[in-house]
Amino acid sequence: MKPVVEINRLTKIYNNLRGIHEVNMTVQQGDIYGFFGPNGAGKTTVMKIMTGLIKAQQGEVKLFGHPVSTHYEQAMAKVGVLIETAEAYSYMSGRRNLELAARFYPGIGKQRVDEVLEIVGLTPFQKEKVAGYSLGMKQRLGLAAAMLSKPELLILDEPTNGLDIEGMVHIREIIMHLAREERITFLISSHLIHEMELMCNRMGIIHQGRLVREGLVSEIAQGSATLEEAYLREIKEVRRLAAHA
Ligand SMILES: Nc1ncnc2c1ncn2[C@@H]1O[C@H](COP(=O)(O)OP(=O)(O)OP(=O)(O)O)[C@@H](O)[C@H]1O
């Protein structure tokens, strides 16, 4: 089966010489893929290139077999995106925001708005202004907007960032429900290893702009008491090798 996401030798170096170097990643259909790394490791940069928000200097991203840089519309046709905190018009209701977003997609109407509100648990609050929403509710509204077009792949950058425990659990439950019931493939970035452990089947670890490990979460955690311990061991080894290079 063709991978849903293929990233090949992706490189982008900013003027300050930070960025990402030769990143290779593969997401298979049905994966909940955790893209894990500390603050500043390069997760958002990769995701912005993947979704055409910025350009790479080198390398390629293919979504459903289509290169993003040359065949953007085909590549993004079955993709929903939530990058950084979801932006919404705060003086409008949650529902009105979704209705406006739905106008971008031909054939997506009020019925789909009802469906996505239901999936993210915002039906009771749909008529309230977004200004009165909690951060968790705003994130769920962003997730609802990303789902409007019935995507087969959802790319979520730090979807639980800043949320309290209940907010995190709620987002996680929605993601796992969608993966199971609607067969949506997920690429989710996070700097919270516990989230990866609870939610993802496969993961990639990015460290200082380089993908240092990719594989099944169960494989990566093997031989360690926790995934956190496995990660720390991995990074120690990367630093040891770098010191001897
Ligand atoms: N527009 C920019 N100009 C210069 N440097 C940048 C820019 N965007 C990101 N960087 C740098 O590139 C590196 C990777 O940043 P990026 O935002 O991709 O990391 P991240 O893993 O998403 O971090 P976080 O978890 O904090 O969001 C960081 O060192 C960051 O400071």
UniProtKB/TrEMBL annotation:
PANTHER family: ABC TRANSPORTER, ATP-BINDING PROTEIN
Gene3D superfamilies, per the entry: P-loop containing nucleotide triphosphate hydrolases
Top-level taxonomic group: Bacteria
UniProtKB keywords: ATP-binding, Nucleotide-binding, Transport
Family: Belongs to the ABC transporter superfamily.
SUPFAM superfamilies in alphabetical order: P-loop containing nucleoside triphosphate hydrolases
Domain spans labelled ABC transporter: 5-233
Protein name per its UniProtKB record: ATP-binding cassette domain-containing protein
Record-level Gene Ontology MF annotations: ATP binding; ATP hydrolysis activity
Organism: Paenibacillus silvestris
InterPro entries membership: AAA+_ATPase, ABC_transporter-like_ATP-bd, ABC_transporter-like_CS, P-loop_NTPase
